[in-house]
Amino acid sequence: MPSTVYYLPDTLRNWPWKELILNPHYREAQNESFAWLEGFCRLTPAARKALYKGAFDLFCAQVYPKATLYNLRSCCDLMHTFFALDDETDSVDGAQARVLCDIAMDAVENPDKPRPEEESIIGEITRQFWQRASAQAPKAARERFVKSWNLYLGSVVQQAERRPASYICSMDEYMASRRLNIGCDPSFVLLEISLDLDLHHEVMEHPAIVSVNSDAQDMVILWNDMVSYKKEVLTNSADYNIVTIITSNCQTDIAGAIKWISHRNDELVGRFLETKEDILNHRNGVPSWGEDIDIQVAKYIDGLGKLCPSLSC
Fold this sequence. Notes:
The chain is mainly α. The chain has a single domain (26-311), classed as Farnesyl Diphosphate Synthase (Orthogonal Bundle), CATH 1.10.600.10. It has helices at residues 26-38, 45-54, 56-63, 69-89, 94-109, 121-133, 139-162, 171-181, 184-194, 201-204, 207-234, 242-249, 254-281, 291-311.
């Protein structure tokens, strides 16, 4: 790790949602989800340590504070499915990653179809997760999850293809890829489910809703990469990190990259909050979708707001 001293900015200084609320079903959902995952395979000591250290269930309890036990368990299962897929694809080439991701995609598209005995366990893990999670999900949310899962898996394959060459992306390449493989879109669908929302595509595809989703996603990328950069440098895995991308493409040092991230974060926060007001007050072309849907949209925006501090920890 370079000896450069740099300071992480307070990314939440202008963020209205600062209080972290813990879902009361945290421990029960955690225990159920851990038992479920370990039932598939005997995790190596290293994998088990990484799983517990990752605190995925605590993360879910903060991100989905209003979820029922059933839905919080589904959210935990999603994080463990991400973990299992990452563990399976982290050291393989693009061709092998594609095989595994095709299996994971088929499992989501056909959650009631038995998996072949000879295939990777990732197929059955994914199938069981989605069969359970989708059981209480509205049709539109199910469709959005399948679409977002497909895009996420495509980005996993692309990352595996680039890994051997230590490929340094351009800024545009990196953000386009990272928006997919950070897993926000599938997680946002689980947010809908956790809040018991039923929002049609025409609502979720409105430019204002797309904008707040995109800005929240980019904030997560900046925060996640900035916090994990030092660890990734120590493990020689920082090529795919926004700090590296900025220093390589903008001819600046680490401190300069952090300053860039802080400035960009402030822009995203400002736009998110402005667009939120447009949505809630039906201005600048944002319509009312009727009282019931407007209330649901407000709950979704509030859920996004509460999600971001959890991701900044």
